Amino acid sequence: MPINDDRSARYIISLFYYLFFNMHFTDKTQYPIIAKLGVFIPIIVVLFSFIAADELLTIVFWSIILAVVLFATWYMFCTKLLLKCSEQGIYYQLKPFQKKKVFLPFNEILELEIEATDFLTKFGGWGKRKKGNEKAYVFNDGYFLKVKTDTRTYYFSISDQSKQKWEEWINKNFSNLDINS
Question: What distance in Å separates the CA atoms of residue 81 and residue 98, rounded to the nearest whole number?
C-alpha cells in the first residue's frame, strides 16, 4: 500500500509542477455581442421587404438579400479566433474557416507584446483584416497580442480576462529566450 501512495503523491506533484510551471492556455475571442445583435435589424427589414414584395423580380431580389444577411448572421455567430500558447510558440486558428492551426515558432518571432490599439482607425473594423504586411484578427476592442516576424506583423484580439495570463506567458518565455533584445 505505501508504494501506491508514493506513486500517487509523485503523480500529483508532477501534475502540479506541469500545470504551474508549464503555462499552456487557449484564448478564444468572438465578435462582441453588440455586433451580433446589430445583425438582427437588417434581418427584420429584409424580411418585411420580402413579405411585402409583389412582383417576381422584387421577390428574387429580396431573396438574394435575405440569403446574404442570413450568411452574415451565421458568420458573426460562428466565427471565433483561437489562440494557444506553448513553450515552442503560438498557434492560431480562425474557426470555422481554417481547418488547421497555424504555428508561429519562437525562432521566427522578432517581437511579442500586448498592445492596446484603436482597431477602428488602424484596421477599419472587426474581422480578419490585412493592411500591407500587417494581418489583424479583430474580434474585440480591447487588447491585442502583437507578433512581429520577418515577413509580417500579426495582431490577435485577446480577451480581457486572459490579458494577465498572456503577460505572464510572454515574460516567462521571452526572458528565457531573450528575443526582445
Answer: 10
